[in-house]
Specification:
The chain has a 5-stranded parallel β-sheet with strand order 2-3-1-4-5, sandwiched between helices. α1 crosses α7. By secondary structure, it is of the alpha/beta class.
């Protein structure tokens, strides 16, 4: 089944925005970063070092699901970067549809911690990384999830992800240039 949406998921600092943008570019699909869907109160809470609760997340996840639904209605597949750490969050994003694919960016806490510490200007402090890993429910057993390692360069990770998505039948191979 072809995907209406690919949700690039993982803990903060795993490369969701970078890989998501590269994947969207390769596919010729629009890209959306779920960070932009957070209400100001969520951003302020995370910036102060407090992890979000499920009650904080529900409106945010619903806004992302609405974005995916609008893209589906327009016939335009979309790539979205979103942590989607728990199965219940992924179920909320699926919203009963089978055409949402999750691309899990997996990596060791040490590597992701180094990358997160090197980021500039992001509201998510490195102090919340442990809570991200504690919250993460590995999606490997879910039929609509593909996992790729983030050990390689962003271009290599995006290429590996694209290969796996093509092999899974979630996307068609990108057309070659003119």
């Amino acid at each position: 089944m072809r995907a209406a949406a690919i949700i690039v998921m993982g803990v903060s600092g795993s490369g969701k925005s970078t890989i998501g943008a590269l994947l969207a570019e390769a596919l010729g699909w629009p890209f959306a970063d779920a960070d932009g869907f957070h209400p100001a109160a969520n951003v302020a809470k995370m910036a102060s070092g407090q992890p979000l609760t499920d009650e904080d997340r529900w409106p945010w996840l619903d806004a992302i699901a609405a974005h995916i639904e609008a893209a589906r209605a327009a016939g335009q597949p979309v790539v979205v970067a979103c942590s989607a750490l728990r199965r219940v969050y992924r179920d909320r994003l699926r919203a009963g549809h089978k055409d949402v694919i999750f691309l899990h960016l997996a990596g060791e806490a040490g590597l992701i911690g180094e990358r997160q510490a090197a980021r500039q200007g992001h509201f998510m402090p490195p102090s919340l990384m442990a809570s991200q890993f504690a919250t993460l429910e590995d999606p490997t057993a879910e039929a609509d999830a593909v996992t790729v390692s983030v050990l390689a360069s962003p271009a290599q990770v995006a290429a590996a992800a694209l290969s796996q998505l093509i092999a899974a039948g979630a996307v068609a191979p990108p057309k070659a240039g003119p």
